[in-house]
Amino acid sequence: MEFEERRKILIDSLKINGISDRVLDAMMRVPRHLFVPEKLQDSAYMDMPLPIGHDQTISAPHMVAIMCELLDISSGMKILEVGSGSGYNAAVMAELVGDEGHIYTVERIPGLADFAERNLKRAGYKNITVLQDDGSCGLAEHAPYARISVTSAAPDVPQPLIDQLATEGTMVIPVGNGEQQLVVVRKDIEGNVSYEVWGGVIFVPLIGKYGY
Ligand code: SAM
């Protein structure tokens, strides 16, 4: 079966998670097989995380879909991702913000920052900037961000990320060691911050100044 046909079957299967057509259409436009190591391309359209080297993973498609859905991403938004990994989640978010928006994605491991950069270039994305740094401190120079997506689990929500979230902004972040919860952080127009627990998840740890 061709990659596109396999992708269609995968995306159709995600509809049961209550994911909107807007997110599913964005995922349909991203060739996930270009974001996994070549020897794993055959598994790229299975709904599971896959190893990408350096003891890290590309997240399962349903998790990417759920996080994008919770973020309620609109065209033109400026978004920060912490944990580029393969670059796949950044690519899905780039589809959602369109040419008017921009994704800044920060990766701690130099070899993975290069991997994400290469994959995104090969897939043709121009509205994404990959930076190698400790993303637990956020990325102050381009703040504030309308949305923040953290793709590794933190001990607590890092204060710099709360500070760098725009008013009326939303952040999704897995929190916890062992038992992890996906937390949705919202900042209202007056700057008040609220927290909502979505449910249990499994992510690799956020390593850094505000991580483990
Ligand atoms: N979003 C990725 C994708 O689409 O492939 C998956 C990310 S993987 C589950 C988590 C990533 O977070 C790993 O690549 C890991 O190196 C990275 N990470 C962990 N701590 C970090 C930190 N302090 N700053 C930036 N990246 C970090």
Tally the beta strands. Answer: 9
Q: Compute the number of structural domains.
A: 1
CATH architecture: 3-Layer(aba) Sandwich
Bound heterogens, unique: S-adenosylmethionine
Rg calculated over all Cα atoms: 16 Å
Q: How would you sum up the major sheet?
A: 7 strands, mixed
Mean pLDDT: 97
What is the highest CATH level, the class? Alpha Beta
CATH superfamily: Vaccinia Virus protein VP39
- Span between termini: 42 Å
CATH topology call: Rossmann fold
Keywords: Cytoplasm, Methyltransferase, S-adenosyl-L-methionine, Transferase
Function: Catalyzes the methyl esterification of L-isoaspartyl residues in peptides and proteins that result from spontaneous decomposition of normal L-aspartyl and L-asparaginyl residues. It plays a role in the repair and/or degradation of damaged proteins.
EC number: 2.1.1.77
Subcellular location: Cytoplasm
